[in-house]
Amino acid sequence: QVQVVESGGGLVQAGGSLRLSCAASGSIFSINAMGWYRQAPGKQRDLVADITSGRRTNYADSVKGRFTISRDNAKNTVYLQMNNLKPEDTAVYYCNVIEERRRGFYDYWGQGTQVTVSS
Questions:
Q1: What's the rounded Cα separation, in Å, for the pair 95 and 75?
Q2: Exposed (0-12), middle (13-18) or buried (19+): which is 107, by Cβ within 10 Å?
Q3: How far apart are the C-alpha atoms of 117 and 119, rounded to whole Å?
Q4: Where are the beta strands (DSSP E) in the chain?
Q5: Tens digit of pLDDT for each residue in 1-30?
Q6: DSSP assignments along 14-32, one per residue
């Protein structure tokens, strides 16, 4: 079983920055992709950014140029640096980890961390 724990959320003013961290632990075979999703009240959970084991990245259009995703494969950790934050970035941010085993791919989620951006 894989455990996923996020940290780094909080309250920030518009234009400010936050850095989210997510660490995967437990009986890990091989982590494929890691990513961040967010869910605002009354809305669906959407992809923010993800990164493959080869460090290929993908971003939602709304965060391109402001957010940067990175990972430390040795620590099974993924980061999300968020700059120039806007009130519309307010949401619960969830970390997603995709583990690859011989039988296939397995999906794990963290509990989420709240990010609130005030205007």
A1: 15
A2: exposed
A3: 7
A4: 2-7, 10-13, 18-26, 31-39, 46-51, 57-59, 67-72, 77-82, 91-101, 104-109, 113-118
A5: 899 999 999 999 999 999 999 999 998 888
A6: TT--EEEEEEEEES-S-EE
